[in-house]
């Protein structure tokens, strides 16, 4: 019987990954995600056949991920903003070659080397593919340590199901904070496809079709066919994998849209607003791509206005606007650079919304 | 009802450990809890703090901005955070390293000479445990039993010999306020 443990978000992600069968981790240090490789270095060391490797760079690490994924292994890398930028070429190759893996971004303030404090300014990069070419990565955004563990395991399953990299997007707050965690009792879903495409070598005494792991298609018609195939997968992901949490939305005049750490602040602000008699509610996207657009549109029937609460200058707000398509006004409550909005700041924004609408 | 607690001091004083002991004890009692450290380019001797939120229902923001209790283990953190304490809240300061603060009339202030008490109890390194004792005495959010169980678990078999010293320090801290 598992018992609750007090863990940092970073530690919970690492342990959950191992319990989901991740046996390969390649990374390069950067704050505020260093507890992930630290934990993995110790944990994987004790497992026979597993490998933790601190690569010489983020670019090397993501290409090691490509290798392990191509051989059919469950593999993960983690970094933060600047390091994730360096990995983008590799992520594009992984998507092009249809290789499953999990990429964790415990993001920090940007642009550039930025700050090491919590931020959500990697939203565009995460949800729009990030690297070159026509591709997307599903993005899972935990807002508690418990959820960080659960979504890490879901990320591995989704990666294998769709043969695509999956991004777990946290921030410094989610990575550094400790909360009680009940490690999920992980079971490999029985309906995951076999990895018959993996390059695992010639079976002893037999033969097998040549496994080709590749993202280069010099014939444009073939590449278009390949991309169309990838986008057929994405259509299924958009249909089947949308996840979100709605709180206090039944009677809400004002809907806050927030994910990750910002959703925690928003939840406290909504409690304050409700104590003042303002009917505010929270729509918390758990998948940032695919974005819960339908759920937002449904809320527009009743709500008067929407407030996108972000630790950025307003990136998710684009998806909120696309979802609502002009149905209702959308406003931003955002902080940048690693500044976390205070509960009072968000409460004030809700009050302003009420006065302004 | 969420109770925010802020513990601050020098890096190396075991400030984060005080918070973790509180958080783990609260978890043991089935409460909702979050713990968040200051993190950054910290150095030994530099500022360190952690915020703990203990609640009956799910916790919104884990950030501590209006603590019902501040435990300041040194003078700079007392100076920096004394004004943060919520009205009617409690301010504990390590009187071995900090002078009495300007008196705020709307909070309760307690001087705890943590280092001196810890030294008498056997080891100055358990000054943080003295403060932990004072905290649990004044803020009955977690029981002494849960804290002791927690300390046992956190130290593990390797440091079992330190249990007695730390238990004594916690008890003296409780007696000091």
Description:
The complex is a heterodimer of chains A (357) and B (177). Chain A has 357 residues and is an alpha/beta fold. Chain A folds into 2 domains: 5-181, Rossmann fold, CATH 3.40.50.970; 245-356, Rossmann fold (3-Layer(aba) Sandwich), CATH 3.40.50. In chain A, 41% of the residues lie in helices and 18% in strands. Chain A has 12 helices and 14 strands. In chain A, the strands form 3 sheets. A 7-stranded mixed β-sheet of chain A has the order 3-2-4-5-7-6-12, with helices on both faces. In chain A, helix 1 (9-19) packs parallel to helix 2 and helix 10 (293-299) packs across helix 11 (316-324). Chain A is globular and about 75 Å long. The termini of chain A are far apart. Chain B is an alpha/beta fold and 177 residues long. Chain B has a single domain (2-175), classed as Pyruvate-ferredoxin Oxidoreductase, domain 3, CATH 3.40.920.10. Chain B contains 6 helices and 6 strands; from the N terminus they run βαβββαββαααα. Chain B has helices spanning 15-28, 75-81, 114-121, 127-138, 144-155, 163-175; strands spanning 2-10, 32-37, 47-55, 69-72, 90-94, 108-112. A 6-stranded mixed β-sheet of chain B has the order 2-3-1-4-5-6, with helices on both faces. In chain B, helix 2 links the parallel strand 4 and strand 5 (90-94). In chain B, helix 3 (114-121) crosses helix 6 (163-175). Chain B is globular and about 40 Å long. Chain A binds chain B through residues 4, 6, 31-32, 116-117, 172-173, 176-180, 264-269, 271, 340, 342-344, and chain B through 20, 23-24, 27, 32-37, 39-41, 58-63, 65.
């Amino acid at each position: 019987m598992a018992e609750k443990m007090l863990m940092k978000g970073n530690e919970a992600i690492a342990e959950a990954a191992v319990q989901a069968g991740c046996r390969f981790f390649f990374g390069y240090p950067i704050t505020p995600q260093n507890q992930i490789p630290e934990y993995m270095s110790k944990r994987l060391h004790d497992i026979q056949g597993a490998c933790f490797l601190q690569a010489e760079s983020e670019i090397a690490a993501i290409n090691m991920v490509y290798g392990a994924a191509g051989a059919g292994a469950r593999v993960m890398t983690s970094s933060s903003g600047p390091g994730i930028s360096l990995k983008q070429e590799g992520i594009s190759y992984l998507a092009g070659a249809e290789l499953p893996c999990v990429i964790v971004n415990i993001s920090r303030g940007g642009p550039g080397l930025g700050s090491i404090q919590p931020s959500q300014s990697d939203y565009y990069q995460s949800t729009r593919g990030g690297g070159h070419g026509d591709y997307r990565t599903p993005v899972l955004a935990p807002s508690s340590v418990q959820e960080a563990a659960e979504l890490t395991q879901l990320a591995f399953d989704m990666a294998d199901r769709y043969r695509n990299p999956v991004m777990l997007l946290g921030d410094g707050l989610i990575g550094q904070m400790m909360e009680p965690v009940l490690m999920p009792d992980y079971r490999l879903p029985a309906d995951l496809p076999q990895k018959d495409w993996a390059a695992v070598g010639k079976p002893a005494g037999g033969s097998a079709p040549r496994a080709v792991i590749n993202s280069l298609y010099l014939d444009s018609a073939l590449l278009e066919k390949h991309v169309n195939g990838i986008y057929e997968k994405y259509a299924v992901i958009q249909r089947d994998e949308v996840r979100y949490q709605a709180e206090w939305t039944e009677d809400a005049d004002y809907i806050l849209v927030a994910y990750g750490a910002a959703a925690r602040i928003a939840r406290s602000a909504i409690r304050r607003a409700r104590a003042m008699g303002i009917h505010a509610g929270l729509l918390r996207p758990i998948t940032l791509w695919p974005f819960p657009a339908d759920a937002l549109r449904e809320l527009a029937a009743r709500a008067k206005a929407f407030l996108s609460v972000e630790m950025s200058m307003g990136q998710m707000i684009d998806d909120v606007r696309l979802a609502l398509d002009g149905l209702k006004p959308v406003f931003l409550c955002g902080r940048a650079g690693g500044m976390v909005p205070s509960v009072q700041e968000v409460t004030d924004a809700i009050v302003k919304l009420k006065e302004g609408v | 009802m969420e109770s925010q607690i802020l513990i601050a001091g020098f890096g190396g004083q075991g400030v984060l450990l005080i918070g973790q002991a509180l958080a783990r004890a609260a978890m043991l009692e089935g409460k909702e809890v979050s713990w968040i450290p200051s993190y950054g380019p910290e150095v030994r001797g530099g500022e360190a703090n952690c915020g703990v939120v203990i609640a009956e229902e799910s916790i919104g923001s884990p950030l501590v901005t209006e603590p019902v209790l501040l435990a300041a283990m040194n003078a700079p953190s007392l100076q920096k955070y004394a004004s943060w304490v919520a009205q009617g809240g409690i301010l504990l300061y390590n009187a071995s390293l900090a002078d009495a603060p300007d008196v705020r009339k709307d909070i309760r202030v307690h001087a705890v000479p943590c280092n001196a008490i810890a030294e008498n109890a056997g080891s100055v390194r358990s000054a943080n445990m003295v403060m932990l004792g004072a905290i649990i005495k004044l803020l009955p959010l977690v029981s002494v039993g849960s804290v002791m169980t927690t300390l046992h678990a956190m130290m593990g078999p390797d440091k079992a010999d330190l249990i007695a010293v730390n238990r004594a320090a916690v008890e003296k801290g409780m007696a000091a306020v």
